[in-house]
């Protein structure tokens, strides 16, 4: 589904992203972990063609993202609040995204009704603009908007951050369902190793722009990751 | 302590992401200031001489009569242009800094405003002339000036109060409107009452203390208001009110363009900054009053009529269009990842501008009062706006890299940061091009051919719309990454 070849991104003398090769198959769910500055958001931005790569190509569904825009109809993402339109109510925002993705109101409503428990009554019918919702509620709206229009690739940057514990658990449930769907390729970054190993069947570790680990999730994965991020010789 | 504040301010300027355009802005602003200072000095000499020699009345009396207008105009100018004392207050609130000190610094900063000094360049030469040539005693002139300084600082703090309390603005505007129209229709002349007051500065010396005392009182009032507001939940965080979800389905006849059109209408309705643009375009409707009445001899050249037509019908187009796509700056990454064709996006902005240009053209029919030719130039200007200027302005938008803070309306008159060489050139083209077309026709055959040529240019622009959009789309695409990056830099 997604194939990355020799991509680098440099700002002046510093290289912030440098991945030789990475192949993500259709239906996989990939968790991206790494410390601050590892290049996770940069990587996602490159996948979405929001930054100009210094070298290399990214293919999404057979199309090079820098050249063709065909990937846009099958890919959805929520990176940060710049994916929200602050002066719309949540409903208007969902319908707007729906219209762009060729979904009518009824279809969007049907999808939204599936996430009623996730919203916890704090998103729909609030008589508030998105900009006036709390950070956590904004995030809920943004995440669900990324599910509209049957996307084949879903990219979520730090979806767990800023959410309350109940919502985190519910989100984990939702992401797990998406992960097992063979039609959906899921990419999630997180600082929470437990969440990410629970949700994803493949974990990619980044460090200073490089890919340092690529493992299929198993019983040992969490331990392995904890050791990676807190090696014994440092204690 | 204040040393820290000053270094913070310096750093925020020099390390700003849009430094180069800010420097350009500063240079423009300073040349403007130098010009104003020059005009002040000139006005004081010429004014004094004219009143003294030609009218043979005492310049001081004349000055006292007009001071009330100066007082009001100064307040209006301040309200529009003077920057409010803003310091990045959030990170300072939890630090061990006395809140009073923060406010003192912020309010103190306003004392150094250009508005508080510029009048000195008028009053100092004027006062010297009064002493030397006008036989007014030094003591009187000093008291007079002392009182005026009090008035200047009174205005300084009154303006801050106006900016804080909306209802005072309404009351103030109403009072000015009533007094202004009473004076215009000669029922009541306020200067009869205010002139003795300003005379009182030197006739009964103690009156000079009144503005000074009022200014100081106002300072403490503003201080009290501000210090109450220094909590995150009042002035820093914005209030929210109940709102309704709107569908605007009647626009669906526009097909896919409607998706954006609906959004743009909500954008205009729900954001201060965009609403201010609408107000500004209404003001543009009155541009013709500068050109068409016979009393306005200065603008009577044959080529100015068409410029008036462009400005009257194009107020919204010019003010809104120059900030496409900056209107969507806060969610630009979203737009860039949805399956949107730039063309559809641009087309929706184009339709919005064309629709509103149509509305302003209809509203402009009031100019029929000045004869059919005046309104003809409005219609021809509108055709040119729709066909040519709409495209030029969308093109110039591709080079506008300033994110817009939709929630603040303060910047609407001074959004100088959005100006760069490319957009400046293109806005020159917008003004000059219709004049050139008209002038060619006018010189060859006379006004009719001038109007025909301008209209033809507009119609040609409409005919080649798709071709032009393809070109603009290419520019937008090549600027995409730079634009995304620039919009991330919040001010």
Automatic annotation (TrEMBL), chain A:
Taxonomic superkingdom: Bacteria
Keyword Cell inner membrane appears in the UniProt entry: no
Gene Ontology terms for molecular function: ATP binding
Family annotation (PROSITE patterns): ABC_TRANSPORTER_1 (PS00211), ABC_TRANSPORTER_2 (PS50893)
CDD domains xref list: ABC_DR_subfamily_A
Coiled coil ranges: none
Domain ABC transporter: 2-233
Keywords attached to this entry: ATP-binding, Nucleotide-binding, Transport
Gene3D superfamilies on file: P-loop containing nucleotide triphosphate hydrolases
SMART domains hit by this protein: AAA
Name of a matching Pfam family: ABC_tran
PANTHER family: ABC TRANSPORTER ATP-BINDING PROTEIN ALBC-RELATED
Full protein name: ABC transporter ATP-binding protein
Organism for this UniProt entry: Aquimarina addita
